[in-house]
Amino acid sequence: MSILPFDDRDGVIWYNGEMVNWRDANFHVLSHALHYGSCVFEGQRAYGGEIFKLNQHSERLIKSGEILGMEVPYTAEELNAAADAVVKANGLVDAYVRPVAWRGAEMMGVATKGTQINVAVAAWEWPSYFAEEAKQKGLRLEFAKWRRPAPDTAPTQSKAAGLYMIASLCKDAATENGFDDALMLDYRGQVAEATGANIFFLKDGELHTPTPDCFLDGITRQTAIELAEKRGIKVNARKIMPEELGDFEQAFITGTAVEVTPLSQIGEYTFKVGDVCMNMVRDYDDLVNNRQV
Question: What gap in Å lies between CA 57 and CA 44, rounded to an integer?
């Protein structure tokens, strides 16, 4: 399937308070964000024209900026309105939405004083992150080379663009090796997350998920916990060591892009795509599409 490049599409993007032509939504090559990673973003999904948990995403964008010392110059309500307007202006129903805030080109150097905070919101039609066949069979993950950093070495609770460099390295290596994605450990050698999604495991009727103390407590992760508990499934957030993976029966990842997707393999460990996984997939799909759960 041919994919249009993201700088050459029809449509409009909300850019610093105005709708601009998609191809004109540019910034200077000497922008601080490009050189020093002073950028935060969100990933949102619209289902039936409505963005799922929009306000939580807008609030997290603002919080991510605060962690990096960036004051996003719009309220959550204004960001909500911008996201809704972009979806509508582009005639989208089911879409991916990307708000992003970054430091401009007013200053060049490590210091940030004097730089302007820019904000844009784009939206586009986007199919499932993984092929439906792969989701039904369960994704295959390899163990990543790179690890999630300690919270005293990087702003790990911010959805900061720079933190995804190691995720890209891990994702690229995994696909080159014939896998769908990679499982990242943290700085202690504990199970952390996939390259862009949180992870859950099933054992003896209970779910286990790593404590998000050095990576994001994803909005979809929180939703999955709520859905599991609604089914009466206990969820244990705890330290998980990689050698425990052989004890788990089922596994799945969660995220705005991946939604809820089962796993069949991580390295040498294999998992069944069972009833609990598929119930979570269906429950999430029903919830985001406003069907009763």
Answer: 7
Superfamily of the domain at 132-288: D-amino Acid Aminotransferase, subunit A, domain 2 (3.20.10.10)
At residue 111, the 3 state secondary structure works out as coil
Chain centroid to Cα 158, Å, comes to 12
Residue 11 CA: distances (Å) to CA of 46, 80, 125: 17, 19, 11
Distances 277 to 61, 196, 219 between C-alpha atoms, Å: 30, 19, 18
Report residue 153 as tokens: 């070495």
DSSP sequence for 252-266: EEEETTTEEEEEEEE
Backbone φ/ψ region at 122: left (φ over 0), alpha (ψ -120 to 50), beta: beta
Residue boundaries of the structural domains of the chain: 12-124, 132-288
Which pLDDT tens digit goes with each residue over 70-92? 999 999 999 999 999 999 999 99
Give CATH for domain 12-124.
3.30.470.10
d(CA 86, CA 225): 30
265: tokens are 């393999």
Cα 128 from Cα 247, distance rounded (Å) = 30
Lookup: tokens for 55: 């306000």
Neighbouring residues of 46: CB distance < 8 A, sequence distance ≥ 6: 52, 87, 92, 93, 94, 95, 96, 97, 123
**For residues 26-38, average pLDDT:** 97
Catalytic residues: 159
C-alpha 194/C-alpha 182 separation (Å) is: 6
- Output the pTM of the full model: 0.95
